[in-house]
């Protein structure tokens, strides 16, 4: 029992000493950190200056000192004892790597002087930005070409970003890791594969210096002159204007139009099924009748390549067409189709059936003269885009059943903006940019434009995205428009604060406060409950323990805590 009591007492003493050492170390660290802080304030704390411009910065203190000054290769200020604010000033800064230091002499630990360096960034915009291409003359569609951007005499290069644009669209950007502070020349390349849509496009590159919050705003930017490119591509024949099957009614000539797009402009030639050329000119038209051979070929050719379209001529006695209309139809409007039947026996009845896709839509039964028409009213909707209509006639002369060609319709409708992807209210947290997506359905494909609350257009392109930040105006408008109409969606930008860092800091303070309170209460409890004075008066020795008094669970010895007055007595 004596050995156990000694170990317990030793552990308690060791724990108390360890706690005291911890508190002493914490107290010493706080004092050391406070002494190590240099009592100087710089204003501004960082300087960004254009090469050759003037610059100034203040250094002040609120403590007594033995002297303070500026050390610098330009604009040094000798040590002075009678001032608390001194200014470093250079009227024309022409040193790229200058590092001015403000110092103060006063007792700080074992040191008599503490310095504070002023970060200085000296910048220079490029003398020129030039764009070029490793090729002369027109470019060929799909072939690779390398654009080159030369930036001359710029500093510092680590703050430089070179951006590539096609028209107003950002294609790519390049940053640099070189830490050189003096002006350098940089060359950046961009590989492109132009297509026919790029014919006449303008490329340019921009050199932008991002010098931080202390630098000029907006960022200094130098742009190259635009580089316009010419793209050659082989012909594409317009298959809408020249279908693969052409129906010709007896006694009614037709005019075929072979229209081709290409660069250089294609030459059009027509040939019969025997490959004999019957027409070769820039003219796109060819007259055909019921005597024209069944197979025709239109060939469009230029210096890049050639394209041939095969046309089959079908002699018909029945046709389908619009009444007083050509081209696409508009949703919500009413149109009339007619089925024209030729060479009908007037003594017989004719049954005309109308079809849409593969389902019978309506039936018209009538007696007709030699030339007869049957009409159908339609009101197309957007789901009818690409639908096919045709008519069939039964009981006509020489035919049991005769079917017209299929008439495909193109349905145009005004834009519909996807309100799920673009809600009416968008929250934006400070420091966290958001991307809005304005997606619209329509035919023809809608053009998307964004505008501020002032209706000033800030983005107009087929791109559907717009980056927003806390500086974006409260009211935004996305407008989707095509040849049929337009639709505008109002979006309200709501700025919200991010309280997560504040909450995390508050929790850390509360945890630290509770820890200090716990240690304080434990130390008081330990001193009062575990280290008091006790009296062994009237204690009875125990024979089984070698006449050693004990205070265990068996044979307890009455003991009482001595008060302050008992100790003095």
TrEMBL record:
Biological classification of the source: Eukaryota, Metazoa, Chordata, Craniata, Vertebrata
Residues passing through the membrane, by range: 499-526
Signal peptide positions (record): 1-36
InterPro entries cross-referenced by the UniProt entry: ICAM_VCAM (IPR047012), Ig-like_dom (IPR007110), Ig-like_dom_sf (IPR036179), Ig-like_fold (IPR013783), Ig_I-set (IPR013098), Ig_sub (IPR003599), Ig_sub2 (IPR003598), Immunoglobulin_dom (IPR013151)
GO MF annotation list: integrin binding
Gene symbol of the encoding locus: LOC107587931
Start and end residues of each stretch annotated as Disordered: 545-569
Keyword Membrane: yes
Keyword Nucleotide-binding: no
Keywords, sorted A to Z: Immunoglobulin domain, Membrane, Signal, Transmembrane, Transmembrane helix
Descriptive protein name: Vascular cell adhesion protein 1-like
One Pfam family cited in the UniProt record for this chain: I-set
Domain Ig-like intervals: 126-223, 235-314, 332-403, 415-494
CDD domains named among the record's database cross-references: Ig
A Gene Ontology biological process term: cell adhesion
